[in-house]
Amino acid sequence: MSPAAIELLGFAAATLTSLCWLPQFWRTIRTRDTRAISLWTQGLFAAGTALWLSYGVQILSWPVIAANALTLLLVLAIIAMKLRFG
Question: What CA–CA distance (Å, rounded) separates 66 from 70?
Answer without folding.
Answer: 6
